[in-house]
Design goal:
Elements (H helix, E strand, L loop, with lengths): L8 E2 L6 E3 L12 E5 L9 E7 L7 H13 L3 E11 L5 E12 L2 E15 L7 E11 L3 H13 L2 E2 L6
Antiparallel strand pairs: 1-9, 2-3, 3-4, 4-8, 5-6, 6-7, 7-8
C-alpha cells in the first residue's frame, strides 16, 4: 500500500522517467515511484521516495542503518558501500548498497543509491522530516542513470504551497 510523506515536497524528474502507478509497482511504504522508460535486462531502473518524522534522538546514520536491515529482509547479499554525510551532520546523507534479488525468476545484481534529506517544517522549524530518495538499477546500468537521480535530488524542496 502506498504511503504519504510526512510533509509535502516538490521535485522534478528528467524526461525519460515515468511516474509509476501503484497498481504496476510494488509500492509498499513508498509515497512516489518513477521508472526509467528503457528497462535493462528486464529490470526498469526506478526512483522511489518515502519519508518519516524520526524520533528526536535519531541520526541520519541510524536511519540509513535501518534501511540496510530492511533491505536484508527481502534481498540477498546486501553489501553496504560508500556512505557520506553532506552538509552538516544531520542535513543529508548518501549511501550506496549492492544486492541480489530475483527478477522474473532470474537472479539480478542491483545497486541502490539512497539520499536522506532532512527538511524542517515551515510552520515549526523544530520539527523535522527525513525524506529518503532511492535509485535502484541493475549493476550494469546504475552509473548511466545516476546523473538523472542526482538532478532530481537537487530539485527537492519542501512544498510550501506558495507556488513559484
Amino acid at each position: 500500500m502506498p504511503t504519504t510523506l510526512p510533509m509535502p515536497i516538490e521535485f522534478r524528474l528528467p524526461e525519460v522517467w515515468l511516474s509509476a502507478r501503484s497498481e504496476g509497482f510494488d509500492a509498499v511504504g513508498v509515497a512516489f515511484a518513477a521508472v526509467h522508460a528503457r528497462p535493462d535486462a528486464g529490470f526498469a531502473a526506478n526512483i522511489t521516495i518515502d519519508g518519516e518524522v524520526p524520533p528526536d534522538a535519531a541520526t541520519m546514520a541510524g536511519l540509513a542503518d535501518e534501511s540496510v536491515e530492511r533491505l536484508r529482509e527481502v534481498a540477498e547479499s546486501v553489501v553496504s558501500g560508500r556512505r557520506r554525510e553532506v552538509g552538516s551532520a544531520d542535513a543529508a546523507l548518501t549511501q550506496r548498497l549492492v544486492f541480489s534479488t530475483g527478477v522474473d525468476g532470474a537472479r539480478c545484481d542491483l545497486v541502490q543509491s539512497q539520499m536522506y534529506l532532512s527538511l524542517s517544517d515551515a510552520e515549526d522549524p523544530h520539527k523535522r522530516a527525513v525524506i529518503r530518495l532511492a535509485l535502484t538499477a541493475t549493476a550494469a546500468r546504475h552509473d548511466a542513470v545516476l546523473g538523472d537521480f542526482q538532478d532530481s535530488v537537487r530539485t527537492v524542496r519542501a512544498d510550501t504551497g506558495a507556488g513559484v
